[in-house]
Design a protein that fits this description.
It comes from Chenopodium quinoa (Quinoa). This protein has helices at 6-9, 18-26, 37-42, 69-76, 91-102, 114-120, and strands at residues 14-16, 30-33, 44-45, 50-52, 56-59, 62-65, 82-86, 107-111, 125-126. By secondary structure, it is α/β, with parallel strands linked by helices.
Amino acid sequence: MSAQNPRSENLQLVTVDVHAANDLIRSGHRYLDVRTPEEFNRGHVDVENCVNIPYFFFNPAGRVKNTKFLEQVSAVCSKDDHIVVGCQSGVRSGYATTDLLKAGYKHVSNMEGGYASWVENELSVKKSDDAEL
């Protein structure tokens, strides 16, 4: 019988579609938008319990991981919070969700299709007054 790391057994990326994400958020889950502040300000999921902490920043050389991501999340979320993570298309949020699970967050789900799918499914969005879309 081999010893298994219990942490790796629990490290399973859970992905939910936007309708399931909407239900989870409306029932009290926190929504973590990992897009850049610029993307977030152009429009985001319209929920009360929403926080924007970028996973990547974009600069002329390409994308750069936010080295303070986990620190910034831990300032506003506990490892026992129920969190739905979203981005623009579902890719960055998948990376962010995996990092959160590895860091010991227990109840984290990745929103499949991201904000683009949220908009496509005509779910409620909030746009900044000065956003140009």
